[in-house]
Amino acid sequence: MFVLQVVIVLLLIVAAVVALVLQVRHDSTQEARNRSLAVAETFANSPGIVQALASPDPTAVLQPKAEATRKAAHVDFVVVTDTDGIRYTHPKPDRIGKKFVGDIAPALAGQSVVEEVDGTIGRLVQAVVPVEGPGGRVVGLVSAGITTKHVGGTADRQMPLLLGAAAAALALSIGGTALVSRRLLRQTHGLGPGEMTRMYEHHDAVLHTVREGVIIVGGDGRLLLANDEAHRLLDLPDDAERRHVLDLGLDAETAELLSSGRVATDEVHLVGDRLIAINQRPTGLAGGPPGSVATLRDSTELRALSGKADAARERLDMLYAAGVGIGTSLDVTRTAEELVELAVPRFADFATVDLFDAVLDGDEPEPGSVLRRTAVTGVREGAPLYAVGEQIRFVETSPQARGMAQGRPVLEARLAESPGWRAQDLERTEQVVDFGIHSLIAVPVRAGALVLGVVTFWRSERPDPFDREEVALAEELVTRAAVTIDNARRYTREHGMAVTLQRSLLPRTLPEQNALDIAYRYLPAQAGVGGDWFDVLPLSGARVALVVGDVVGHGLHAAATMGRLRTAVHNFSALDLAPEELLGLLDELVARIDQDETADGTTAPVSGATCLYAIYDPVSRRCTVARAGHPPPALVRPDGRVEYPEVPAGLPLGLGGLPFETAELELDEGSRLVLYTDGLVEDRERDIDAGLALLSGALERGADASPEETCRVVLDELLPPRPNDDIALIVARTRALGPDRVAEWDVPMDPAAVGEVRAAVVRQLARWELEELSFSTELILSELVTNAIRYGGAPVRVRLLRDRALICEVSDGSSTSPHLRYAAMTDEGGRGLFLVAQLAERWGTRYTPTGKIIWAEQPLS
Q: What pTM was computed for the model?
C-alpha cells in the first residue's frame, strides 16, 4: 500500500508537470507567432521603407532601423529582403546578401504568412509580410521571428515552484503513510497483510475442521465464537454469537459451567441425547483478555465407534484375504470364481459375476453388448439365479444396469418392493423372492474408464438387508478383484496378440516404386515362424533399399527379435544412411538387446543374426551393398550370366569390433538382383557351396524369366521336401531413370543465380507438361538454393527427377545439417524450411562423401 500511494503521487506530479509544460509551450508559441507578425507588419508599413528599398544601398538605410526595432520589440531578428529573397538586413551582418530561409511565395502574392522553420540562427517562429509600393505592387519583404529556445520561459520560471510543491506533497504522503504503517505493524506484532490473511485462513480452517467443539466466552458471559462441531454438539441456534450463554437454551448445569469461566477437566454433561466431555480454561491467566475457552468431545460417538471395531476388523481381514486370494492365476473365469468364493458366506449368502463376452476373449467391451454369467456360488443349492454360461441382457431399470451406467454400486434393500428389479424377468424374480433372497448389492466391475461387467451380492439367510457400510465393503472387494480381472483380460489379449505377431511381422504388400520390378517369397519352417525377414524400402531420389535378414532360432523370441530388427531398419533407412553405417547402427542395437536380455536373465541373447542391405539408384544404375555375416547376393546380367559379386562379409550383428565395408555394383537395366537367406541354399543334407551352385544353375535356366517366374523356378529347384529353416527370397529386376526424366544445373555461389535457376526449372517443367507445379517448385528451389549459397559450400547443384513424384534436389559441399524451426514474429529468417515442408509432400537431407543433398518431393497427381 505504501508503494502504491507513492506511485500514485508521483504519477500525479508527472501529469501536472507535463500538462504545465504543454500548456505554457502552446501559449508561448502562440504569443511568438502574434508578436512576430505584429513586428513584421509594423516595420513593413513604417514610413520610408519603400523609399529605402528603392535607394542605391538599402542595407545602409534599413540595417540600423531593423536592429533598433528588433531590440525594442524583443524579437530575435528583423530581416528585410528583396522580392527574390536576398537579405538587406540581419542581426548577423555576415548573413546579409544571402538567401532568406522560409516560404516567401505567399508574401509575394500579397499575403502575410507565419511559419516554424529551421533558420540560420536555429529553430524559430517567423512571420513574412509583403512591402507594397505604389499600385499595390510588392517591392520587398519583411520577416520578424523568435527562436524556440526563447519560447517556454514561463514554464521554466514556474517549474521550480511546481516541483517544490510536489516534493512537499510527496514528503507529507510518505511521512503519513510511514506513521500509519508503523502503528499497524506495532498493533499486528510485525505481521504483514499477507501473513495476517494466511494466519486468519489457517486459524479459521483449523477451528472449523477439528473433530472437537470449541467455544470462546467473553468476560461478560457472552458467546464470542463457536465452531461447527460445537454448534452440532450443543444444538446452538444460528445467531448464538454475541448472545449470553444463559440465553442459548442449554441445560442449567452446562450453561452455568460455560458462563462461570472456571477450570474444568473432562466434566461429562448430558446434552440432549449426547454425553459431552467438557474441558475449560480461563483466557486471562497469562495477561490475555477476560473470558474462557472450552473444548467439547462427544463421548457417546467414541463408545459407538469402539463398539464397531470388531466389525471393522473383520472387514479388514476380508479385504486382506481378497488381496492375497483373488487373482492367483491370469485367467478371467478363475478370478471371478475366487471372488464369489471369498464373498460367500463371509459377506453375502449368494454371489454372481457377469462379464461381457469381449472381456472373456481379452478385448475391451462394447457398450450395449450382452453379458455372460461367469461365476455363481451360494450357501445352498437350488437358487433360481441364472446359471454359469447363460447370456444376460439386463433391462435399464435393473440395479445391475443402473450400476454399470452410473459407474457406482446400487443397493436394493428390499427386492420384493423393487419394480425395477422385478422387470428383468417377472417369473424368475418371483422365484428368487420365494426362495428367500430379499436384498442385493450390484457393483460394476471397473478398470479405469472401462466397465467389464457387474458383481451382485445377494442376502437370504440374515433377515437384515444390506446397509450403506456394507455397500462400501462390497465396492472395495470388487475394486480389488477388478484389477486382477483386467490383468487377466490383458494377459488373454496379449497372448492372442503374441500368436498373431508370428503371422504379421512380415510385409503383406510391397511399396510402390519405379526403380525395381520385385517378386518375393517367404516360407516358414515346419516348426513354426522363425526369424527370417525381408523388406523393400523406397528412399529419396527415386532410390530403393533392399534388405534381407535372419535371426537364428524359432518361436516367439526369434519372431519378436525379427520384428525389432525390421522396425529398426525402417527407422534407420529414413535417415538416408549408407549401407555400412546402417549395419553399424543395427550392430549396436543387437548388442544392446543382448545386454538387456542377459541382465534380465529370462531370455537368451540374440545369436547368429545376419543382414544384407543394398541401395539401388535408378539414375546412376549403381547398387551399393553391405552385409553382416549374410550369404552374398546373386546377380543375373541381362545376357543371362550369373555371378556372386565380391561383397565383404562382415561379422554377424551384435559381435561388434570391426566396421562394415561396402561394394558398389554397376547394373545394366534389366539385371536381376537375387537376395535370400541361408535356408534356401543350406540344410542338413547339403552345404552352402552346393546350394549356391544349385541356385546359380536355376537362375541361368530362368535367364529370360520375370521376377515372379524366377522365384518359382528357384524354389522348385532348391526347396527341400521338409524345410527345417525359414526361407526368404527376393528377386529384383532393375529399371533405369532415363536422361529425359532427369535435369541438372550447376549453380554459381552468387545469390543472383537463383533467378536463372528458377527460370530454367520452369522451362523444364513446361517440357515435362508439369506447369501446375511451377509455382511451388520455384518457391522450394528458391529457398533451398539460397540456403545452399548462404550457408553451404561449393559446388552447388540442382537436380530434378520426374518419377512417381517430382523430386527436387539441391546439393552443396557442406555437411552442415539444416533444421526445421518455427520462427517468431520478430525473427528476420528461419521460415525457409518451414515453407518447403508445407509445399512438399516429403523432404529431408542425405549426406554424400562430398557434402549433402536437400531433397523435396511433390506428388504428380
A: 0.47
- The DSSP string of 642-685 is EE-------PPTT--SS---EEEEE--TT-EEEEE-HHHH-BTT
Determine, yes or no, domain membership for 445: yes
Domain CATH number, residue 253: 3.30.450.20
Cα gap 802→737, rounded to integer Å: 9
CB atoms within 10 A of CB 199: 12
Together in a domain, 726 and 800: no
Asked if 645 and 687 sit in the same domain, the reply is yes
Residue with the three cell numbers 507588419:
41
Which residue blocks in 344-392 are alpha helix, DSSP H?
Answer: 357-360
CA–CA distance, 552 with 607 (Å, rounded to integer): 7
As for how many domains the chain has, the answer is: 5
Grid coordinates belonging to 374: 461367469
Residue found under cell 506428388: 859
> Would 298 be classed as within a structural domain?
yes
Q: Identify the helix (H) or strand (E) that includes residue 97.
A: none
Q: What is the C-alpha to C-alpha distance for residues 147 and 4, in angstroms, rounded to an integer?
A: 42
Compute the distance between CA of residue 466 and CA of residue 238 in angstroms, rounded to an integer: 37
Residue in this structure with the C-alpha cell 548577423, named with its chain if needed: 92
Q: Are 77 and 40 in contact (CB under 8 A)?
A: no
* 33 within domain boundaries: yes
Report how far residue 350's alpha carbon sits from residue 375's, in angstroms, rounded to the nearest whole number.
Answer: 11
Backbone angles phi, psi at 519, to 5 degrees: -135, 150
The pLDDT value given to residue 154: 52
Query: What pLDDT is attached to residue 736?
Result: 94
Residue numbers in the chain where pLDDT is lower than 70: 1-6, 9, 13, 16-28, 119-122, 148-159, 161-162, 166, 180-181, 184-208, 286-287, 301-311, 495-503, 526-530, 554-555, 598-608, 820-832
> 91 preceded by cis ω (within 30°)?
no
Q: Does residue 589 share a domain with residue 572?
A: yes
**Biggest CA pair distance of the chain:** 146
Residue 345 lies in a domain: yes
Q: In which order are the strands placed within the sheet that holds 371-378?
A: 391-392, 371-378, 350-356, 450-459, 439-447, 410-412
- Answer yes or no: do 814 and 717 share one domain: no
Same domain membership, residue 145 and residue 48:
yes
Q: Bridge-partner residues for 517, per DSSP? A: 733
> In sequence order, what are the residues at sequence separation of 6 or more whose Cβ sits closer than 8 angstroms to the Cβ of residue 334?
328, 488
Q: Is residue 667 classed exposed, middle or buried when 0-12, 13-18 and 19+ CB atoms within 10 A define those classes? A: buried
Q: Are residues 278 and 335 in the same domain?
A: no
Q: Which residues, in sequence order, are CB contacts of 575 under 8 Å at separation 6+?
A: none
Nine cell digits for residue 369: 453388448
In whole angstroms, give the CA distance from residue 26 to residue 30.
6
What radius of gyration, in Å, describes the C-alpha atoms of the chain?
50
Strand (E) or helix (H) holding 346? none
Residue 191 neighbours by CB distance under 10 Å:
14
Domain encompassing residue 291: 208-304
- Residue 111 CA to residue 104 CA, distance in Å, equals 9
CATH number at residue 829: 3.30.565.10
Please check whether residue 648 is in contact with residue 625, taking contact to mean a CB–CB distance below 8 angstroms. no
515 and 450 in a common domain: no
Q: What is the pLDDT of residues 329-340, one digit of tens each?
A: 888 899 999 999
Instruction: List the one residue out of 501, 506, 511, 531 whose CA is nearest residue 521.
Output: 506
CB 820 within 8 A of CB 837: yes
Give helix 153-187 / helix 2-44 axis angle, nearest 10°: 170
291-298 vs 213-218, strand pairing mode = antiparallel
CB 553 within 8 A of CB 605: no
Element (H, E) at 4: helix 2-44
> Of 322, 404, 396, which is closest to residue 359 (Cα–Cα)?
404
Q: DSSP for 116-169, please give it.
A: EEEETTEEEEEEEEEEE-GGG-EEEEEEEEEEGGGTTHHHHHHHHHHHHHHHHH
